[in-house]
Amino acid sequence: MKLTLISKYRTHIMGAAMMWIMWFHSAYAGNSDVLKFLHRIGFYGVDMFLLVSGLGLYYSMRKSKSIGEFYKKRAVRILPAYLIVTICWYVFYKTNVSFSDKLLSILGVNYFRGAVGNRPEYFDWFLPTLIVLYLLTPLYDKLFQKASVKWKFTLLVSMISPILCIVAYHLNRQVLFGSLVRIPIFLIGYWMGWYLYEKKEEEKASWMVHVALLTAGILLAYYIHTYVKNPTIFWGLNCYPALFVAPSLSVLLGFIFEKAEKYLKIVGKILLFPFYVCGRYSLEIYLFHQRLMEILNSESMTAFRNQLFARFHTGGYYFLLALVSVALGAALHELIALVIRLIKKIGKKSEGSEKQLETA
Question: Tens of pLDDT along 70-106?
């Protein structure tokens, strides 16, 4: 079972991660203990997303002609959707928030300012985290390329994660745990990107190795969720089992996707399509899903929410919410892509006109 499966089905794996995250955000966990536990660790979908993102960033660094081009690609992918949703959120919904907090929240600053209980209004934790990782990637890449043994360097730098968590705890910034504990999985993804880009995928592991790693991660997560009662220690440890779960689950999903596409033919492509859609529009879906959840869970929407629960039941209600989020995310993504294409087209026309004037 090759690591190249992660690269080949990168979008589909991101889609699976997005589905897991949406399920985690919902209040529907199913009836069995197994489903309830899988629901509780649904935030591991974020770790899968960061793993695949780190892998993709290594490829992007190699393909970009300059650091400026690298940043431009990242900005075009993230900022339009992020700014549109956040600005609309504060203009039309969070009207009682002060202008300074609106601005600082949109810029992602408020996330880093305080503890959970007393921090000002903020928007998302994941997007500020992702932006910081993107900003630091060129610097990390320079250090990474100089390292003689890449996996040792990755392990060494990953040790900064628990150290920063301890510092955050003493500074009363436990809210940052969600970002800090995920530094290692992002770095592992970056190492995977190097490993695959350098054509070293011939060293493949048996599917039993990945199942064993996945099982170990799940058991470790179960132990932490069952026996660690201290909230601070729990939130400092609960993402580390994802270091086993995210890579192994991503490879296994890639293996399943490959077999489905190979042996089920058209049926397989149909089954894979929802994963592709959720992966392609994952950023926009994430932005909409969180906001829709907050709006519908507000007191002002109680009557409407109860009507939806009565008609669709709990599972159907959250599934419908997910579908609406996917539709809105896809629409926003394609609208932004259309505007960007038009801007590029206009830019090329203006360049052509200037050249004609110069030669005239």
Answer: 999 999 999 999 999 999 999 999 888 888 888 888 8
Is 339 a domain residue?
no
- Greatest pairwise CA separation for the chain in angstroms: 79
Determine contact, residues 45/18, Cβ cutoff 8 Å. yes
Token pair for residue 93? 């919904």
Q: Under the phi-then-psi rule, with left for phi > 0, alpha for psi from -120 to 50, and beta for the rest, what region is 261?
A: alpha
Residue 51 lies in a domain: yes
CA dist 85 and 333 (Å) reads: 12
Spatial separation of the C-alpha atoms in residues 156 and 160, rounded to whole Å: 8
CB count within 10 Å of CB 1 equals 18
> Do the Cβ atoms of 41 and 221 come closer than 8 Å?
yes
What's the burial of 357, exposed, middle or buried (CB within 10 Å: 0-12/13-18/19+)? exposed
Domain that holds residue 180: 4-280
The total number of structural domains in the chain stands at 1
Question: Quick one: CA dihedral 285, 288, 293, 294, positive or negative?
Answer: positive
- Answer for the pair 101, 121: CB distance below 8 angstroms, yes or no: yes
Rounded Cα gap, residues 24 and 19, in angstroms: 9
Task: Establish if 351 belongs to a structural domain.
Answer: no
How many other CB atoms sit within 10 Å of the CB of residue 263?
9
- 320 contacts: CB under 8 Å, gap ≥ 6: 308, 312
Residues in the chain, total: 360
User: Is residue 346 a part of any domain in this protein?
Assistant: no
Please tell me the pTM assigned to this model. Answer: 0.91
- Report DSSP state, residue 75: H
